[in-house]
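User: Some background: our group keeps a shared notebook of sequences we're curious about, and every so often someone picks one and asks for a predicted structure to add to the entry. Today it's my turn. The entry only has the sequence so far, pasted here. Could you supply the structure so I can complete it?
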Amino acid sequence: MTAPPQPIRRSDARPPTPPAVGVRLAGTGHALPETRLTNADLERVLDTSDEWIVQRTGIRERRVCRRERGEGVHSLALDAARAALADARVDPADLDLVILSSVTGDTLVPATSCRIAADLGADRAGAFDLAAACSGFVYGLNIAHDLIRGGAYRTICVIGCDAMSRIVDPSDRRTVILFGDAAGAAVLRPTDDTSKGVLAQCMHADGSRWRDLYLPHSRLDIPDGDDPDDTPLHCLRMRGREVYKFAVITFSDLIDETLAKAGLVADDIDLFIAHQSNARILESARERFGLPEQKMYVNIDRYGNSSAGSVPLCLSELRAAGRVGDGNLVMFVAFGAGLTWASSLWRV
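Assistant: Of course. Here's the predicted structure to add to the notebook entry:
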């Protein structure tokens, strides 16, 4: 007599093994507003100087959107996505998902990504906005990678874009000198080469420190310690010294953590593509790991801090210049409001 089948206990149940696939960066692109805001322009309206700004940040100019020209997150992100799709030679109709990393989307409802997907011609693709500030593109890159490696999706466009000029107080020297507007995008697809894709990743947040970098929309959003009469609504507020200290420490710790996960050392990495927050922070990390200048890309002098647009803009410029080669080990690193910080170590 055959014994009755035993019920499967919850601890014994296992999901099916996902297909063994690699993930490749099939294409990249970027977009920038036409208008340049130079340090000389700021000297005319603020108590600052080109020397002071360059010494403390490394920034000489930044790009800013002009709403009267129709420039904004939607237009920049759309142009960057189109460029990435063209570079990847992918028909927009083949997109399964569009992820837009941004904290300055043109609308909260609908998600700006939905409009972008429609305008691309990806009418049946899923779409969502991701808000992780300057860490947003790296968060999105990790999510998209794992969705493809898990077999649920095949073609995903990840966009990082912010129009920070919309949310800075033009009279606040602490923020207006730092931030600019930019977009970058990457198209990810599966590959039979299973060596390609993410070797290690980290995504972290410390919400207890939200006051260090926040955007109030009502008086109730203003934390204790900040003067409500001196805090304009709908403008970014930043405790610069605290954010700087956080970034300097976190940058090195994040690189160490990611390398440890992958079983590698800094010398093994061909290129570090880091969020462009401050030239002094980038230089501090480069010296900490003894890296040659060519391994730590810097473009903050030309674009400022473009938040979620920063990392993909660097990636797009580097690929266009032929500096991201097949099989290279590339580490993406970012940190920002939240406070958030994230990394993604790829074999491309």
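Suggested note for the entry: The chain has a mean pLDDT of 94. The chain has ten helices and 13 strands.
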